[in-house]
Design a protein that fits this description.
NADP; Rossmann fold; Divinyl chlorophyllide a 8-vinyl-reductase, chloroplastic; two-stranded parallel sheet; 6 helices; transit peptide; 18% strand; alpha/beta; EC 1.3.1.75
Length: 184
């Protein structure tokens, strides 16, 4: 079976799922953020896995996009499974995801954001801080069967604030592209 090919015949105490669609498109979102992740959960449950750690996203709190709805549907199934404990980790943006914006702006390009740039605020987090938090969710009983939002240090900032700060730091005239949220 595909499950045996992918996971072997062994059982696991913990499964950590970081699956996410690459495009955020409608088909990818349902195929990956929901169905592929559900397939992993199904195999984990069949093999007697005790705990499932899901890397989700903070933006599912106000679902507008398909990938957010797909992630939420899976979160609900995980929470209702009953035979496996879980930790649902919802990080804000990654510092790494902002690196592309920095490169574009440094080359004279615009800072791109959705809507007016104030739809949401976040506290970007490093990959290593997130990885530590996810590992902690396996070891710490108080993190079991919970949805756990996490962000980096400092005050939460909107995309507009982040872009404005970037232009100030680079001593450049601000140029923004505001992508209508309806496009997604």
């Amino acid at each position: 079976s595909i499950a045996t090919e992918a996971f072997g015949s062994e059982g696991f105490d913990v499964v950590v799922s970081c699956l996410a669609s690459r495009t955020g498109g409608i088909k990818d979102s349902w195929d990956i953020d929901y169905q592929a992740t559900k397939n992993v959960l199904d195999v984990a449950r069949e093999r007697g896995t005790k705990h499932f750690v899901l890397l989700s996203a903070i933006c599912v709190q106000k679902p507008l996009l398909t990938f957010q709805k797909a992630k939420l549907k899976f979160e609900e199934e995980l929470q209702n499974a009953g035979d496996i404990s879980y930790s649902i980790i919802r990080p804000t943006a990654f510092f790494k995801s902002l690196a592309g914006q920095v490169e574009v702006v440094q080359k004279g390009g615009p800072y791109v954001m959705f809507g007016d740039g104030q739809l949401a605020s976040c506290k970007p987090i490093s990959e290593s801080d997130l990885a530590k938090y996810m590992a902690d969710s396996i070891r710490e009983p108080e993190m079991t069967n919970k949805v756990l939002p996490i962000g980096g240090p400092g005050e939460a900032m909107s995309a507009l604030q982040q872009g404005t700060m970037l232009f100030e730091l680079l001593e450049m005239e601000p140029k923004f592209v505001k992508v209508p949220i309806e496009i997604m």
